[in-house]
Batch of 4 targets.
Target 1
Amino acid sequence: MAAAGGESSTTNVSEELFQNFYTEVKQIEKRDSVLTNKQQIDRLLRPGSSYFNLNPFEVLQIDPEATDDELKKRFRALSILVHPDKNQDDPDRSQKAFEAVDKAYKLLLEPDQRKRALDVIHAGQEYVEHFVKEKKKQLKKDGKSLDLEEDNPEVFKQAVYKQTMKLFAELEIKRKEREAKDMHERKRAREEEIEAADKVKRDREWQKNFEETRDGRVDSWRTFQAKGKKSKEKKPRSFLKPPKVKMEQRE
């Protein structure tokens, strides 16, 4: 009974932390919604942004469970804020920030991509919840206090955030590896295709040259044979000459 009660308590704590996490997310959204255009550009281009911006919800600073209308409104507000036309004193950075916002929005407009992003976020949350649950289970087994730093909503939120970013980064690395592998295979196939085409071209040229020079080779052979026959006809007959007899000298 005690074990069952402990598991139920752990489940309730996880659910409470989960709700606190979304409450924190909404508070952050409200706070960041008043960021200036320069602050938003800095946020979108901060060090490590190539990985931070893999999470489209993080880019747009919007609740993963937001409706389509909320998504459109948020995109419009943020895109206007960082648009190069509104930041003519910093056109290059504002252009990059706008592209990040636009990319995240377009990705979330695609149902499959949006589901994939949500799956990653849910996986990150489930991982942290499972980690907390297993850690409390071990503490209980060891007879120790069940208090964890992850009981603090802020710590829990940061743990979920870090795990989610890690999952997005791992997926991106795998994607790049597949892309590099596919590119290498396409390059190799193209090289083989070019080599095969060159071989066919060389064979055709050889055959063409062979056909074009065949008559010349035949004529040369016939001329050679004719010269040989004529030379044989003009050659005089040779007779064996008897050896000279050396006369003996008498004294």
Target 2
Amino acid sequence: MSFVVLAILVSAANLVLAHVGLTNIDSSWYDAHATFYGDMSGGETMQGACGYGDLFKQGYGLETAALSTALFNNGQTCGACFELMCVNSQYCKPNAGTIKITATNFCPPNYAEPFQYHWCNPPNNHFDLSMKMFLSFAEYRGGIVPVKFRRMMCGKSGGVRFEIKGNPYFIMVLVYNVGGAGDVTNVEIRGHKSNWIAMSRNWGQIWNTGLNLVGQRLSFVVRTSDGRSLAFFNVAPENWGFGQTYEGKLNF
């Protein structure tokens, strides 16, 4: 069977797999607390421990949060989406409803005194929101509020995007704008002259390989935490460059 025919069959099978059937995401409600960092412009929420850059250009905006150690899971939760509601506090805004955010950063633990500021320490579930998102359901003077949260499916516009970084001998790829479960658990890469290669998680949602694939068309297989996979064939052309972003035709 030729590679072209195999590619078409695998792509079709993965497309069906990604869009049919029940998700494995746990949508139960859990208890946590929420604070905020930065100002209304959201400048301090850019970059961060998930490897994302300008969150406005990448489509995340200010609908984001930094997660505590228990939720961040060493960066494996980056890209996941959550729904939060403010509960059981005089600082919850009446009829504010819920907010929806994407995990884009890490809220590090603090082991210094005073202990009342150890919100992000294990085993606490905590969301450090952008100021805009916090103020959409709680009063500024509240500072920290109890919340209920649950995982939700991510709705993204356009295809999954691949930003290529590094150098010819250490290629790094940021995978972002991922719909569905949102958090990527495995990435494979293939040059049109090579075999499929499993990439390693560098940090957050940046994946790397030591194979030199310069001058080859690049394809990817991406798997998310709910077990769904999609194949993206020939996403980057032979003349792809470092610092460039390439968008697939599919999303979860």
Target 3
Amino acid sequence: MGSFKGLKQVRKIVEDCIKNIKHPVYHIKELLIKRELAKNPALATESWDRFLPNFKKKNVKQKKPNTKEKKQYTPFPPPQQPSKIDLELESGEYFMSDKKKSAKKWQEKLDKQSEKSEEKKRKREAAFVPPKENTAGLSESAKSTNDNEIADITKSLKKKAKKFRNSEAEENVKIESYVASNEESRSKKKRRSSSK
């Protein structure tokens, strides 16, 4: 059976295993280390905590059991859903001719199309609505400075346009004065060939 101390240790191991605190293998490992430390007389007075392994418990997620809410039991079945024929009888479509039914469906389809097209048109037109400007917020001095800036810009643009026109006029020199025409070159070739 062993000593009373041994029985206490076994009881602790079993209880920890049942409570899922520590696996018995780790307890047995600790007991083996303690037995080896007890043999050494120099360590008899010291604390053995630094020699014992610290096993950290890892939290493993456990699956939660599926608990479905039970509906209240009723001995009577639910009311029967109306069939397509019943719905037609209520609305009066059942007694309509096929032409009238198709005309009604066509009319409903056209109504839906017109609603959707109007909605799309509104969305498209919303993109073209200009944002509101705060013209009342500008002071007279700001307006005058804006007018001055616009006048300066127009003057500078007119000067640049004038320079551009002058430079184009200089570039548009007649090319014919620099390039010999085909007739002149042919006549010169004939003269050279006849003189040879």
Target 4
Amino acid sequence: MAAPQDVHVRICNQEIVKFDLEVKALIQDIRDCSGPLSALTELNTKVKEKFQQLRHRIQELEQSAKEQDKESEKQVLLQEVENHKKQMLSNQTSWRKANLTCKIAIDNLEKAELLQGGDLLRQRKTTKESLAQTSSSITESLMGISRMMSQQVQQSEEAMQTLANSSRTILDANEEFKSMSGTIQLGRKLITKYNRRELTDKLLIFLALALFLATVLYIIKKRLFPFL
């Protein structure tokens, strides 16, 4: 049966993967962001929240690793934690680079707007609409991944409950078998005792019959042969 601790580890890993994907999608949104600065600020706020959730889950996985009984399983989980930490640091580096790229792009667009006027404004509007559609598509994909992971977590919980019920049924059956075994052993002892008693009774009957026959023969002898 899967231990609750193993289920918790699996859930932590699934959540870490989900938050990692969401962070990467937001970083891509920042790279594609063409302004204004308020939009960039809003994206950065979301990234910070996701990093906080990701860091919390990694810490939970690390704590679960330290609580493992087997050293081999502990080392495997600690290696996974280390990999997740490296991936998070890589995402943070990508985040900083994306911010720098976005700010440069916003500055360049603002300068170009001053030079080109209305044509650039229309082009920028079209670009923002395209980016908005791309962002919406990415968000929908992430939502689908999130729903799928939630279903997997629910299935894991149901499987754990089913295994727990099966374990209880097996334990109950084992107790019944133990009770039946005790009853069978008691019956065997009673049968053995009865067989011994029956043998003793047969022996006593044989001795009584022999004594009776000896007595009869003695009486016949005295009646028929009194001179002997």
